[in-house]
């Protein structure tokens, strides 16, 4: 939340796999990478829910195929979809891409893996706030008529299957940040893995990417209040669309009754 889809730039070299868990500063990290690498970043959390239709469809297909891949042919299908999704971007961040770090390394073996991290307790508090807002069934119903959110329920269920595949649970718990980070250490060679906290600002990130520190403040996006603002906006928008739909149904019913039954 708090950041929209970005446009790919043809010819852009893919350089960074953002492996950090959601709610570890991934939105700030994404904007920082955009500034430092002067290229668009594919925010999977945004693109898989609210991006262009082909991005949403391809991410759904990746989430369907990857947990069930058994053969090299299956792997090649997943690889091809990931390459198609990330063509024209310099990096990717957030879920579901962060759950697919081994697959992304297979597609981009020269990329560096940067995992954003934070204290487990504060991470879980942030996750709970977001989960409490976005997961109730009534939310999925309210946003149904918003074009980019019409498949939100399907996306949510597919994402739960990915969590079950990789973390052994559909609903993230306090211990899952550590579990995810332990898996990253297993997946990624130590020389290719960099841990990063966004509170540390430009210095460690610029050093990791071997780029100069820019003459501008470090971006800090997606603060708790930002999430509440966007949630309320989409709830009001969704309810307004429901009012239009129900109003149109009522009007059509009234006209039919008046014409044929009155």
TrEMBL record:
Gene3D superfamilies from the UniProt entry: P-loop containing nucleotide triphosphate hydrolases
Pfam families: Sulfotransfer_4
Transmembrane segments: 230-257
Claim: Transferase is one of the keywords in the record: no
The organism's place on the tree of life at top rank: Eukaryota
Key word Methyltransferase present: no
Keyword tags: Membrane, Transmembrane, Transmembrane helix
UniProt cross-references to InterPro entries, sorted A to Z: P-loop_NTPase, Sulfotransfer_4
Name of this protein: NAD dependent epimerase/dehydratase
Protein's organism: [Torrubiella] hemipterigena
